[in-house]
Amino acid sequence: MGNRLRGLASLGLQLLVFASVLSAQTPAPSAILAGVVSDPSGGRIASADVKVMSGTALVKETKTDGLGNFKLELPPGSYVLEVSVVDFSLNRQPIRVVANMPALSIRMVVETANTTQLVEDETKQRVTVDPDSTLTATVLKGDAINALPDDDDLLLAQLQQIAGAGGSTNGSATIVVDGFTGGRVPSRDQIQQIIIETNSFSAESNGGQRIQIITKPGTGPWTGTMNAGYQNQTMNARNPFDANKPARRMHIFQTTYGGPVIPGKLTLRMNARSVQQEQEAGSIVAITPAGPVNTGVFSPNINRNVGLSGQLFLTKTQTFNFTGNYNTNAAKNQGIGGFTLQERALNFKGHNINFQLSERAIINSKLTSEVRFAYFHNQNSLLPVTEAVGINVLDAFYGGGAQNRTRRRNSNYNFGNTIRWAIRPSVNLQIGSDFTYTDAYSNSETNYLGVFTFSSLADFQASHPVTFRQTTGNPLLIVRQLEGAAFIQADWRVNNKLNIGAGARYQAQTNLSDYNNIAPTFQVAYQLRKGTVVRAGARLSYQTYNLGNTEQLIRQNGANQIETVITNPSYPDPSLNGTVTATAINGSIRTRDPNLVAPYTFISAWTLEQDLRKGWKFSTSFDVNRAVHLTRSRNINAPYPGGSLDTDLFSRLNSLIPSIQLAAQAEVDSMRPFYPVVGNIYQYESAGNAFSKNWNVKLYLPPKLKLYKFGVTGMIQYTLGWTDDDSSAVNQYDWRSEWALASSDTRHRMQGNLTLTAPWKITANLLLSANSGRPYSITTGRDDNGDQSTNDRPGGVSRNSATGPGGYNIDGQFSKEVALKKPPAPARAGVPAAAGSAAAVPVTTAPVPKLVFLVQGRNILNNTQLRGYSGVQTSPLFGKPTGTAPGRSLITGVTMTW
């Protein structure tokens, strides 16, 4: 009996020990941390970043849904909760997570300053393999955005200048606003962030330079801004080449106001803008028979815009973002400057409307979908001030009529969809498509009265033009084009040191029978050691066949319009003598190679990014770009090389012995491949090539750098680049021999953005730029080979053999902030008093009303910035500069924020 009891006791003890072991090995049940994030007015904030930290380690993170809710599953314990939203102060608070705890209510506090906030631990942030942390892109925010011009056109030009300073090419960068291309660039005060990418290796985009503009969200309390600017001639310097300084004035008024209409459901923001100015349309630097003309002519310009944007939260998982704008613009004295006289001016008038709608749906915790739709309608007209025959004296003066009577009406429809799937935490997949339909109507009467071209002032005074050209036919044209693209992109974070991305993009279009356009892309980032990251990428990028080429091809096909060309005509009546090519058989027309394909570019880049001591950062990159099958317009009926027409001699003999001139021209024309057709046949071909390579260095200043009592932030970059192409040719049968430095080649480029913060809330924002000169060609100014063109070069002189002037420039803005109301004490995050209690709601504050007085300066140093040299040997300005940038200009303004 005793043995039996002892056995049972032993068994019970073993079971107890076994149970205790099982209990020790069973993990404690997880707790749910849930909450809602809202703004001071109670409006729910979608897409807020929510992070749970344990010390400096990230435990989990998520984003709030469409109604501001979040939920995380965590082991019970003590953590630090961080909630961050653009335009709101960081909400950071300790919290204890326990089972069955109530949901938290977190109120965000609006940033009271209008400058970039310097977070204490920002100097400790290091470069990583994450794409968002790359130093190859230029990021503008806060003060850097405030330093940009108020005027939309100047703002866009300055962004393109920044992109060109460090970009792989010198062409125009693609503008993307909140995921949309082709829309209106928002006003400066509506911009939250600007990202300028040198190269994009994501299949979501088509590569190349991109300027991404992210507008401010519609969340937050009711806020508004109102700003006004003023300028007149007393605040500006005279253009270096102008003999006069005409009166000038400019008035700018802009206002925005918005907030939650239905808290948690609907937010709206309205904006209105009016700019009325008389700015210099162009400095005329010409030489006429009466003498030099150095005059500044001003162009009255009125631009007005109204817009509305907002967010609609339909459900917890579905959000609509929308924006619409209506813009009108009228400008006089356009198209003049340089050699073009004021009588050649054009008047412009137009309006446009655009609407954008995007819908974001959270299908589940791993899958989101975004649908985009945009509509853009533009209608404008160009009317010449003078109705007369045009007179072009090469690089001396261009007078007579403008010859550009045009009316246009374009409608553009864009639809896109992007699906993002987090297959697992380390693998993300994106799939998307994009379609654009364009309907373009135009009525163009360009050169319907004709234009005379003279090689020199002496020829003009002797009434000996080289050619007379005149267009006749139907001016009406309707062109439609549909473009489509689809992409897939996968990103895999292999580990903390390695990130790999790969994808492919396909695109096709109407008006071009080329459907073999699959473009792969690949990128990799590897962290060599802490603070050192190496990136590499390569891709193909197919380009769209330009709609303008299609319009020109159809318009000038010989059936709709034809160009009459008379070589060595009489003046002022061109029909009295000369060689006429004015029939449908012999006129100049345009055609297309049946083997025409979409051009493409192969891009590769390597980057080293390095953290330096005390918050300094450094990056260096090298990229190579090779463009193939570029579209070229080649004269396939040009006289074969070897045909030579001494126009200088024969034009002088023409008045005495016209038959000699005609015989010489007939001999050259007989060398044309399609003789007796003697008109030019310009054929679009996929025959062009281009190559560029660029070495770029960037240095980022630490965010808390102090010089005496001044805070300094910003970035400085230098680029050394080479660009070669065959974009034009004298010999139409040997374009390879025309391979040379491109006219866009700028060997040395430097650019910097600096923000100086002084006591008493005084801020200076500076944009510095410098560049070496660009190449240009030396030409004779005569038609030496009888192809009806005056672009011939002297014997033995290659294309773009001369180099123009370089230059430097400093633009800036100086501002002083004045608070109209004493700001409240800083809000503090509440700390739960007991386990399981909800976090206390931080003290909320409304934005502090304030005034900002500012002065914007362009070309602050008022240095002479030459813009080019004349390469025409028959010009009286040969080898001399032909233009400059405007002198110093200042705009004063005041902005009120409430």
Reading off the top of the CATH hierarchy, the class of the largest domain is best stated as Mainly Beta
* Structural shape: globular
> What percent strand?
over 45%
Distance linking N and C termini: 91 Å
Domain count: 2
Helix content: under 10%
Secondary-structure content class: mainly beta
Which topology of the largest domain does CATH recognise? Maltoporin, Chain A
Residue-averaged pLDDT, rounded?
80
CATH level-two architecture of the largest domain: Beta Barrel
Tally of contiguous helical segments: 7
User: How would you name the CATH homologous superfamily of the largest domain?
Assistant: TonB-dependent receptor, beta-barrel domain
Structure description:
The protein has 898 residues and is mostly beta strands. It folds into two domains: 28-108, Immunoglobulins (Immunoglobulin-like); 214-897, TonB-dependent receptor, beta-barrel domain (Maltoporin, Chain A). Helix content is 8%, strand content 51%. The protein is built from seven helices and 47 strands. The strands form seven sheets. It has a 22-stranded antiparallel β-barrel. It has a six-stranded mixed beta sheet with strand order 21-20-24-25-30-31. A five-stranded mixed beta sheet has the order 8-11-12-9-10. A hairpin with a 2-residue loop joins strand 26 (476-495) and strand 27 (498-509). Helix 6 packs antiparallel against helix 7 (658-669). The longest helix has 24 residues, at 2-25. The chain is globular. It starts with a helix and ends with a strand. The model is unreliable at 4-28, 112-124, 165-171, 581-585, 647-656 and 826-845 (pLDDT under 50).
